[in-house]
What does this fold into?
Amino acid sequence: MRTRVKICGVTRIEDALAAARAGADAIGLVFVEKSPRHVSLDLAAAIRRELPPFVSVVGLFVNATAAAVTDVLGRVALDLLQFHGAEAPDFCRQFHRPYIKAIAMREEVNLHAAARDYADAAGLLLDTHSADVAGGSGSSFDWARVPHNLERPIVLAGGLTPHNVAQAVRMVRPYAVDVSSGVEQTKGIKDAGKISAFIEAVNQT
It folds into this structure.
């Protein structure tokens, strides 16, 4: 099965279109004000309008209030919600939208328990644990820690680049990979060449 690709932290219409042209399956919009990749609701709606068909739009939240998530949903046509904080299963499912739950790969994490807790999630996004940021750290974790019999589809994130993503896909065989800093010129500004190289490397596995 082909590994899907999400380009996260998109902050410009041109970057969203570059991702679509390169064959990305999804783009991620960050609704976290302290993030350098944060987008306003007006910009998010504009990016959504300019995308061609069949490119999914994912909204990323970190410990947002239910009211804040509902406000975004009222303004931006999101296809999928991504919860990247300490959100409980009941919180994630209350919006009646498909969602993925990010799991920080701490040493003590129990992925099978997480898969049971978030049994209605579309997938689990496995990301590098960082005490400073919830995502986009640019660091990878030990991919050998990912079990091959996890009960939910896996989205692999954390420190992926055009140079290492093929190895990561061969080791983990995830449903999808998620990249942000690995295809950037600077924080929040994507590099079209890196996006193309990243997707080409995934497609060659």
